[in-house]
Amino acid sequence: MKTSNHFIYTSIVLLVSSILLVITSIILFENNTKNNLTLSLLQKSNELILDTENLLLTLTACQENPCLKDDSQIMSIKKRLNNFKLMASRDKQSISLVGATEYSKLNIILDKYITVPSKTDTIRNLIPVLIEMQKKHNNIISKMKIEVNYKNKNKSIMIILFIIFILSSSLYFMFSIELKNKKLTYRINEKINDLKKVLSIIDDLNSNSSKSILNDLNISRQERKIYSKLKELHCKVESSKRNTDLSQQLYSMIGYEIRGITNIIKGGIQLLVHEHDDNSVDLARDVTIATTTLSNLAENYNELFSQGIKEKTEHYSFIHLLTEIIIHLSNKNNSKIFNIECDIKNNLPNELIGNPTKLFWILFLQLSNAISAQNNNNILIRVDSQTASDIAESMVIIELIFLTTLNVNIKKIDHLHWDKTQVNAMKNDEWSMSILDKVSSFSTCWYQSGKQQKFETKMSVTPISYSKKTPLLKGKFFLICADSELRINIMSNIFISHGARVKIARSPNDIFKSISTLALYDAIIITDTIEGIQLTSFCKTLYGKISKEKQTKLLLTVSSNEVAKNSAPYVDHIFYTPIIPDDFIPQVVSAIEIEEEKEEVNHQFLIVEDDRIQQFILKKILQQSEYDAEIVNGGLEAVNAVKSKQIDIIFMDCIMPGMGGIQATKLIRQYEKQNKTIIPSIIIGATALTSKSEHKVCLEAGMNYVISKPYKSDEILKTIKKYIYINDKRVS
What we know:
By secondary structure, the chain is α/β, with parallel strands linked by helices. It is built from 21 helices and 19 strands. The chain has a six-stranded mixed beta sheet, with helices on both faces. The protein is extended, with a radius of gyration of 37 Å.
């Protein structure tokens, strides 16, 4: 038996010795291979640094902008960078890219220069990156020297260790087998005891007790694994509950906002029913605006509620989202009249990634609460962007500046000294931050300068792209008549940034003095900030003076529906304040375009709607633009109407009792196909459902376009104008 054991021990020792010899050979081979890899890595690093230095020298010596004639030099560096990263991933011992942000920053700087070729920013950002890259290069050389010395020592140590191991292993194997059975029995008993212990306390376990248990150094490895898994599960459950609570808080705040608007509508309707005095006109305006705002917010709320606590990220336009927020802020609390101006800079990020619905509600609630907390009704909304601490991010700054008057030069506002009056609302900021997606920081703060107050919101975002301003008004000439310095500054900056020339008239007399030269202007813009005149009479007089000049348009900016209604016959277009560049400029372009006179064509409209109120609203919208329409109550009647006569545009309710709009549309398209109808009817679907999938079903049934209920006058008229133009083209 002893001879047998001795044979086993000897065989094991020989096997281990053979394995060690093979491992030693492999290690030596790998060392040689690694040396070759390290040399190649050094070469790639050196090439990348030389190309980056050449780019820096080119930019430094450059006197023009842009400095580079094309992107070839940039693309060459990006190719070097990719080759270096690929080589580094194969030789992670010489250099680790984990935490090495200089290479990622280099890539971001190059991409940003291609998008926005700023020489100064590129040089400033490139110098520290180049220094860090040179440090990495030197580190590789140092490591290589150390490794060469280390490997020479290792060869000698390996031989000594090999001999020692052979001697020690012989003794070890002789005793290990004898101890193995005893240890195995002990471990089995130990595991049984551990499991009994775990089972005895698992019923009362939670995340806090798991943490205290894991802090105990005396627990076994098996227990530690079990408690770690249980702690992870408890944390996930608690996180889910916390996210649910945060979402419920957000939904409650949104519900509060919607209930406030609903109360305005209910109270307004009650007064309108019982009262017939002059205040009914203003109250009707408040009810109309509140209804529109409620409709838009409810649609946004439905989208947020349908998402629940699920993470939904998408690409979206920050500028469009900002425009929507400002419009809703200006419509909120119409019982309290606000004078709002907007100063929106041109350097804002355009496309972001994240959840736009959550960002909309967080910003809307923060800003609307700040407005409600102030008694000052003169508000300047200023939006700007600057570089964040992370080079890949941008810091977006939204300011609500509460002024004692809006008749102040914007340069004076720029030079105000602001003192912090309230410490950041950390709780609200943390709450907002926990809800938002793809926003790395979020903070709010109040400031004061004399009697002026300011509410500031800052957030760090990662832009996908920046907006590129196209000079839509290049070569155009505008005369602005206003006596508010702030309005003059803002409108002038907007027009000039889009390539237009501007002249200022601070009183009606300034316009009439230069009446002979009015034909030089593409448009004259009158604001409702001018004091001491009757605006409607002024517009009427001026309109008569320039009516012969077809190329000169008369435009009006107002904040009141009543002013707009009275002045509408005497102006070419009316804009509502606050003026938001991305919404304002396209309207200006459209307003100054000279439309050709066309022969009037009598178009046939059909309203397919089962709701009497919706029938009335839609027919009223059409009548205001002098369109007449026939009304039917269901899909079958619509199909029969199409069979009996030619109908140009059909407004089709998608969901109705009996035959719905989708089925009716399919039958109409089938009838047109069978009868080879030369000009098929334009079918515009109408639905209260806002999801893209529902709209897709309507379009697949054969509808040309889908609009959302409740009906909005602007959307209806734009859609009609578009499809009447298409129909007239097909007729001609």
